[in-house]
Amino acid sequence: MSLKLNTLKSTEGSRKEKHRKGRGHAAGKGKQAGKGQSGQKKRGTVRPGFEGGQNPLFRRLPKIGFNNVNKIEYQVISLGKLDSTFKDGEKVTIEKLYDNRLVRRRTMPIKLLSSGQLTKKLFIEVNASSKSAQEAVEKLGGKIELV
Asked: Could you tell me where the Basic residues compositional bias lies (predicted)?
């Protein structure tokens, strides 16, 4: 017997037929179709947190705090970490920072801070930097490019 695509069949019992619920008594899963008694959950879904008309928990509790949607959160990186990771005269891009695991997320912007000591001339690409970090890099002949 030769094996051809048009003669392939699944083995007996490997595929179970789907049971259609709610198609009458004779079909096996009729009347309530395995949904229990005739209540609200049988007729449709109830949204999460719904307490049957009672004032729900999220409305009983007071509102707390403030969420500033315009605030930009940066991943911070120090000059000291750049000094220990990169060679003299090297270009530090955002991709290289990810590859060397100095920053974790690709989506968050990166800010350079002046903590630590920089001894090498580096050309750095970041989203933001502090004035003191920019002065320290430029003092050694490097450059910071804001992307």
From this structure: 16-28
